[in-house]
Task: structure prediction
Amino acid sequence: MTKRAEILSELQEITAVADRFSPDMPYAVPLDYFALLSENVLRRVQANEAISATEELEILSPLLSKIDRKTPFQQPEGYFEQLQVNQVAEIDGGKKKSAEIIKVLFTRTMARYSIAAAVASLIVLGTWRLLNAPATEGDKLTSVDIWEKVREISDSEMKAYLEGSTTNVVYQN
Result:
């Protein structure tokens, strides 16, 4: 019993909530669970070995097996014969209306053509804008212009550039 008091005192030191816990188990097994377990298992095994569906239903649920199999809903006598006669009379006696015809094909075709025209115009405008765009400074230079710019560089500038950028290069002859 001293160990239990020791454990409880340690728990109380750790948290203030621990003293509210009950020492009883929080979960309980239903009454006669283990006594009825073998019967329940045998009942399920017998249900699998049943010869017909009615026998299986009697084993699993006796209350359900006693319910009558008669359908609770019924149609009146001669309902379908009378229904057919009534429909024919309505069709013959009523005014015949012609259905209004709406041409959906025309609107679909026009929608497709307008979408195709919009895509084609976007492609044409994009190409025209790309080809007629003003040239930038980099686009204006040609190979001849580059060599002229290189010739304008003085020997001292080129020597200073080469000395600064080739410090780690090893020359082999």
User: Anything to note?
Assistant: The radius of gyration is 49 Å. The chain has nine helices and no strands. The longest helix spans residues 104-131. The mean pLDDT is 78.
